[in-house]
Amino acid sequence: MGRLIARRLAFMVFVVWGVTLVTFFLSRVVPGDPAKLLAGPKASPTEVAHIRRIYGLDDPLWTQYGRYMADLLHGNLGVSFVTRREVTTDVRAFLPATLELAGYSLLLGFLAALVVGTVAGYRRGSALDAGGRLMAIAGLSVPAFWLALLLQLLLHTRLGWFPLGGRLDAGVAAPPRLTGILTLDSLLTLHLHAFVNALWHLALPVLTLAAGVFGLMTRIVRTSILEVVGEDYVRTAQGKGLTRWRVLRRHVLRNAMLPAVTVLGLEFGLLASGVFVVEAVFQWPGLGNYAFQAIQASDYNATLGATLVIAIAYVLTNLVVDLAYLYLDPRIRYT
Amino acid sequence: MLSVRDLVVRFSTGRGVVHAVNGVSLDVEPGGTLGLVGESGSGKSVTSLAIMRLLPRGGRVVSGQVWFGGRDLLRLSAAEMRSVRGREIAMILQDPQSSLNPVLPVGEQIEEAIRAHERVSRPAARARAVELLGAVGIARPEEQLGRFPHQLSGGMRQRVMIAIALALRPTLLIADEPTTALDVTVQAQVLELLRDLTDEVGAAVVLISHDLGIMARMAGRIAVMYAGRVVESAPTEELFARPRHPYTVGLLRSIPRIGGARRALVPIEGSPPDLERLPEGCPFAPRCAWRIEACWTQNPSLATDDGPAHLVACHDPAEPEEVGPGRPIRPGFAPAPPPGIRAGVA
Ligand SMILES: Nc1ncnc2c1ncn2[C@@H]1O[C@H](COP(=O)(O)OP(=O)(O)OP(=O)(O)O)[C@@H](O)[C@H]1O
Ligand SMILES: [Mg+2]
């Protein structure tokens, strides 16, 4: 197990390096001049040239890259041209909102898929199965932006049940910042009003993102339930006189989970692309929005920093998936 | 104690209806061992699963009764049936490779069988599991509790299965080809263990096997199945000495005699009927050298013959002197041709 973690972490170094390389050069070949943006619309060419010199934007690309990497080794991601703060500070400010959004979406999508996929698999060919499969296909094929707009139109504009966007209503005092994850912070500090308000704001964006997770996962769960239900060991378990619930939980689900857990790693990609859209539509102050604005403003350091964080999250997610698999499947653990 | 009456089981598949079991009747004495033999596909496993009410998806008991302890199991509620499974009737499946859950330690798989029916603490169940593993001949049982099925040999896994099956001292054990997947040497050990332990517990056994050699050693009575029916049933010695049904005669001839004069293996000619399109008459008729006209039109029912313990379903059973040659030796006898052909000749 130690070896697996070490291998993954070594892999992470490569991923980070590759991502810096690609993102660094890519972001600089696309048109756009951050110095001009920084200097503002009324700045003279001399002022722009001055800013360019301060930020080292005149140097050859390789020199700039070398400098960036040297800083990176010290945990320094440079300064954002737009916010004028350290990119690490920005990441710390924006990442928790994204983690909160993605975490709840993953959880909701996964749990819903577990229930619907299991019912569909157990009752193959029934109306429940047909309904579950239809929902899965819908979840997979409806584009996130469309679903987001639809939910806003229906549940905000029409019915007024949920807010349009943001993390908290203007009148609600934010809880003291511990983790930056609002629902967690408000619970820990007993700001129950903020907690409820935060959940209320989470509902629509989470629903939008969870739909995609649910779509893919339901199909996986259904297929593996179908397979596991026919296995001899399930019959052995039933033959012991165990309750249906115990057979389902300890024997069927425990085995059917394995493929589902593997797919969690794949879900990350789905979720990451969904986050950009959803954060934009719901004005969610997260990393996706931050990166989106950074790219538009040719804010090199911010773009690069946000991309790096996503890449690291990807590798870490896969590490967690591997560890979960290791924990769940003794056949791999002991070989 | 177990009395199966006219059991009919069908499978609805995408293509059609499979008539897997077509009126099976069986009786098992308390403490006795009934052997079920028959070719692959003759309905042995489906019969045993129907008794446990654990038929796979698509399978359905169409009619019949399964009397056990004065109740028809087929009429019990799901909860009542659950209290029978594992506690009164236990089951061992053919392949120990796949019949244990690969992701749970074997200890838990034994303990849960006990805790499904008895209110015992986990440590107490654990102690029982250790005891059971010892009883099935597994060395250092405490150490094995935490191990997973893939860490055990096939023989050990089947011993674990026996431990699970006998954990609650059931009155009936159904063992579906319990040793087919094992090496020959291990087979003998596992069978011996099975016999000793079921004797000790006093459990009756339904033993399913292809292997007539095993049957001769283990079973007090043998029922021969063909195309989803019992075609002959008799005490073991009687069946070997005086088989009556032509199919049984063929089966006995198809095995090399242990100890006796070596004979070449004589497979029965032809193949079993298509279970989706069963013939009107006796399903064995097309392969039978003894068939008479009635065989093409009437499926004979199981009836006593040669004394009350010997049952056979045949219009024209083999005579003792015909068993050796494996064909009818009566002057002028020829197997009746199928009805269509006879009409053409006449
Ligand atoms: N799930 C199923 N769906 C459709 N048909 C089935 C199913 N299970 C069994 N059958 C059919 O029922 C018939 C009897 O099968 P069964 O497994 O009882 O045979 P068996 O006597 O146990 O054979 P074997 O010696 O190979 O184990 C076979 O023709 C088989 O194709
Ligand atoms: Mg079978």
How would you sum up this structure, described in words?
The complex is a heterodimer of chains A (335) and B (346). Chain A has 14 helices and no strands. In chain A, helix 5 packs across helix 9, helix 8 crosses helix 9 and helix 12 runs antiparallel to helix 13. With 335 residues, chain A is an all-alpha fold. With 346 residues, chain B is α/β, with parallel strands linked by helices. In chain B, the strands form two sheets. Chain B has an eight-stranded mixed sheet, sandwiched between helices. Chain B starts with a strand and ends with a helix. Chains A and B meet through helix 10 and helix 11 of A and helix 2 of B. The complex binds adenosine-5'-triphosphate and magnesium ion (MG). The site of adenosine-5'-triphosphate has 17 residues of chain B, from strand 2 and helix 1.
Mean pLDDT of chain B: 90
**Structural class, from secondary structure content of chain B?**
alpha/beta
Kindly name the structural category of chain A.
Answer: mainly alpha
Helix content of chain A: over 70%
Number of domains of chain B: 2
- If you compute it from the alpha carbons, what radius of gyration of chain A comes out, rounded to the nearest whole angstrom? 24 Å
**Largest beta-sheet details of chain B:** 8 strands, mixed
Based on Cα principal axes, name the global outline of chain B.
elongated
How much helicity do the residues of chain B have? 25-40%
Number of domains of chain A: 1
CATH fold topology of the largest domain in chain B = Rossmann fold
The CATH architecture of the largest domain in chain B comes to: 3-Layer(aba) Sandwich
